[in-house]
Amino acid sequence: MRNTRCAVVVLVLFLSSWSHAQSLVTLYENDFENPADTTCDSNGWGPGSSAGGGTFAADYTTPGNPIAQSETTVNRICIQPTQVAGFYYDPDASAGNYAGSMNSEMLSVVSGWQEAWSLQFDPQGHNNITLNLDWSLIDRMYDPGHYMPANASKTVVARFYRVPKGETFGLTNGGNNATVPYATLNGVLATPFAQDNNFAIVPFPASDYPAKQYTLNWQTQTLNLDLNGQGFQPGDQVAVIYHLPSVVAGDRVHAAFDNLKITASAAAPVPAAAAVPGNALWALAMMALGVLGFGWRQRQRRAAE
Questions:
Q1: What pTM was estimated for this model as a whole?
Q2: Rounded distance, CA 43 to CA 63, Å?
């Protein structure tokens, strides 16, 4: 009986872990490895970007998931796993050949603007959503020396909007003196239903600068979003704006981002400590079967005595 109880416990663990794993749905995923234009200029950017012609939205918008950018300097950078002139260096080799990049920059109080980019996606009826995105502070090869703070982290702000079915979401830089980018629905200023500003990108120590000014140091931002009570109807989309706030004249930071993955669960997100790795699930199942088999053999042996 004891063996049977053990087997039942193991099976319950297996089934609950399997059920949770099966409930996760990928709503959107982009490693930015398939831009519309794959060429790179001598400064490690997409074509024309060094002259202020960033093409991030044009490179990565896909049907059903429009991308917008508030300024033409949201861009694509070019990456190599070894140090090569004209490319950003990724020693972890986790970013592939390309990543997105953006500035936080206020040239002056009167001519400041707010750079941002946004993505729309369909929640597909799910209310509990998780967004993962890798970030790294990085200097710019074009106009270097101004875009990587010494021992200063940079906060990433994410704002979330409900886009009713049939309405058009817009994004602008806010104009002079703006401290936030502006989002609109059918041309009318929109209000976010949620906002997160709890993630900060940490740079290399000042002692590593400028030796590592073009080296990527990836850190993952994880956001858990609850759509319950936000009025979502079938066909509505979620829009998220990513923004590096700049409120002081001369504040100039350049950051890369990569490996965006948006998933949903029918239940609230499970803490990482409670998750069971996929390759352990079959081990649990085999263990349960082994315990049951051993118990059956023991009962057969006792019955024969």
A1: 0.79
A2: 30
Q: Which residue has the tokens 């409930």?
A: 23
Q: How far is CA 127 from CA 22, 234, 238, 268, in A?
A: 16, 12, 11, 9
Over the stretch 117-147, which tens digit does the pLDDT of each residue have?
999 999 999 999 999 999 999 998 888 876 6
d(CA 281, CA 195): 36
Three-state SS for 153? coil
Beta-carbon contacts of 53 under 8 Å, excluding residues fewer than 6 positions away, are 47, 72
Bridge-based pairing of strands 75-80 and 88-89 is parallel
- List the beta bridge partners of residue 170: 184
pLDDT at 206: 81
φ, ψ of residue 275 in degrees (nearest 5):
-75, 145
Beta-strand ranges (E) seen in the chain are 25-30, 67-69, 75-80, 88-89, 98-105, 116-121, 128-137, 154-163, 169-172, 182-185, 188-189, 194-201, 219-226, 237-243, 252-265
| Letter string b/e over residues 206-227, b meaning 16 or more CB atoms within 10 A of that residue's CB | eeebeebbbbbbbeebebebeb
Residue from 190, 199, 299 nearest 239 by CA:
190
Cβ atoms of 173 and 116 within 8 Å: the answer is yes
